Amino acid sequence: MRKRTFFILICIASLFACSKPKLKEPQSSMNSWMNFDLPPADKTKAAKLNLELGLSYLTQDQVSRAKSKFIKAKELAPDLPEVHYTYGYFLERVGENTEAQKAYEKAISLNPTGGNEHNMYAAFLCRQHQYKHSEKEFLKALEDPNFNSTSQAYENAGLCVLQIPDVAKATEYFEKALRYDSARSDSLLELGIIKYQLGQFNEAKEFHERFAKLSKPTARSLLLAIEIARHFGDKNKEQSNKILLNAQYPNAKVTDILTKSRS
């Protein structure tokens, strides 16, 4: 399966701001027993700080330190859903998928209608190739009126059902994602490829052009550009995209964009 940012940290990134200053460890003089004498609101705040620290350590591949922070967060706020789905992501990252699923499900049990909880679980299921189950969870996330990542969830659902492949549903989800956010680059590129596959070359060109205005070229976007230029007889664009493709992605093949599998 093609690596996708949404399959990694997009759900978590929307909950913990990436632009914050570097986080500092809590003062070492604070003994663990003191944490449990804190008021509930302060425990929640401390738990979220530990989650942020854990994620920061995880991005640096400091797995043991990350785990200690996630466990501390669970001790501080065992009823906080994000503690469990963030720990679930950690468990998945280290290959403990069975335990990871339990953690995601625990988060949902604590907040059954929560959009973030279902969105995180859906992304996990898609990474486990449980595409239809994943789709259902994305749709449950969208039922939450307070869930504010609508375009992201629709795009994620589209990317997931495309692996089945269910091109009709994927098209529907990508189009909905763009209604909420016209700058969803993955949706634009995938729709461009779908339209190309269907022989709708004018629409494929339009989606690709919109994608190109927003994102740096990828192997698949360059492959699509080559095929579109060839169809319209634009030799200059075809050649310039081939040169760029060969320079940046020498092993890419034009047939890659014709397959339903996003490998």
What does this molecule look like?
This protein is an all-alpha fold and 263 residues long. The protein folds into two domains: 5-181, Serine Threonine Protein Phosphatase 5, Tetratricopeptide repeat, CATH 1.25.40; 186-263, Serine Threonine Protein Phosphatase 5, Tetratricopeptide repeat, CATH 1.25.40. Helices cover 66% and strands 0% of the residues. The protein contains 14 helices and no strands. The chain is elongated and about 70 Å long. The model is unreliable at 1-10 and 13-34 (pLDDT under 50).
Topology-level CATH name of the largest domain: Serine Threonine Protein Phosphatase 5, Tetratricopeptide repeat
Mean pLDDT value: 87
> Could you say how many structural domains there are in total?
2
Form type: elongated
> Main β-sheet: number of strands, strand sense, barrel status?
none
CATH superfamily placement of the largest domain = Tetratricopeptide repeat domain
Question: Percent range for helical residues?
Answer: 55-70%
- Estimated structural class: mainly alpha
Strand share of the residues?
under 5%
In terms of quaternary structure, the protein is single chain
Q: Count the DSSP helices.
A: 14
C-alpha Rg, in Å? Answer: 21 Å
Q: Poorly predicted ranges (pLDDT <50, ≥5 residues)? A: 1-10, 13-34
List how many beta strands DSSP finds: 0
Distance between the termini: 4 Å
Order of helices and strands: HHHHHHHHHHHHHH
Q: If classified by CATH, what would the architecture of the largest domain be?
A: Alpha Horseshoe
Identify the CATH class of the largest domain.
Answer: Mainly Alpha
